[in-house]
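Problem: given the chain below (416 residues), write out its structure.
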Amino acid sequence: MSALQQQYRQVRRHTLALAEPLSDEDCSAQSMTDASPVKWHLAHTTWFFETFILERMERNFTPFHAAFRVLFNSYYNGIGEKHPRAQRGLLTRPSMAEVRAYRSNVDERMLRLLAESSDADGAAQREQLATLASLVTLGLQHEQQHQELLLTDVKHLLAQNPLLPAYLAQPVSPAQAATAQQWLPFDGGLCEIGYAGTGFCFDNELPRHRQYLAPFELAARLVTNGEYLAFIDAGGYRNASLWLAEGWDWVRSQQLAAPIYWRQDSAGQWHEFTLSGEQPLDLARPACHLSLFEADAYARWADARLPTEAEWECAAQNAAQNVAPSAAQQSGAGLQQMFEHGWQWTSSSYAAYPGFRAAAGALGEYNGKFMLNQYVLRGSSSATPAGHARSSYRNFFPAGARWQFTALRLARDAAR
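Solution.
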């Protein structure tokens, strides 16, 4: 079995394993428009392989179910009609059993296609195999993105239940006491950002290019729950001067006074809903599920700002040579918690790099058409699959998004 076939099996099985703790009822519900049911994630990631690979390359292709082409299309206008996103939770049919059968059927056909293609000979066949490998790799990376979204959406769903049920049986391990915040200086100057490796990257990470940076400083670690609680206690959610105008309107219209999963009990004690259920707020843990509005307001209160994505990436390259750092690097001196703890907001609008070109066809819709009214996040989170992080990765969400695993690292201009 080839390495790609093994990777295919591993990624696809992991998605099913993430759904294993959930009931069929859990998997069918949709808690808000931005979130999708687990059943939809399982089907859509399968739709991707069937639509973009099997339909194109399988001999005598026949769809598993003709209606699935519309039901599980997410946003690909080049493919055709889509079921409305806000109504994904109304899809009581197909059942979870049928979605699992869909996954099994497509997996069997995909593995057969990979096996047949690997035996092919000749220049044309080798070119077809290279195209197949490229599409499969993109499909697996796409599925890993949905593995993180699955956990994100499940957490939001379970948090709406007054029983506050846990997704995971094991309790959350307490975080180590946070060290005093340190500021690390960077000289600035010309810096290259964008993917520079030879493996996979998404198109929005290219092309690699130069940017000029003024001297700056980055906080060595993320802002903690305890530090963010101090912002709340100081009246941060009641002080309009700390907020962007749209952010202040957002706070007022939704009557917000704390991060999305925080709750203060009648005795004044703070708790946080986690994938392990509701827990006492761990003051040493990095604050998570913050919107850009909240992150920016905290930064102003702390007499700092958010880093630009170029500052973040240049600092990460310096520390980790364009890959996620080891555990030793994460806990040692210098930059810490660059990966695995929470996606980190930047002040950079999500836009194309100079020279960016979207791919032809429907796959060209993957990233480029979302380059408006979004902000870039860097790093990765506790829900990001292993091996899916790199310093050039550009995640992106609108400023009000906070159900994602989003955290906060401070920056400031260097003293002159």
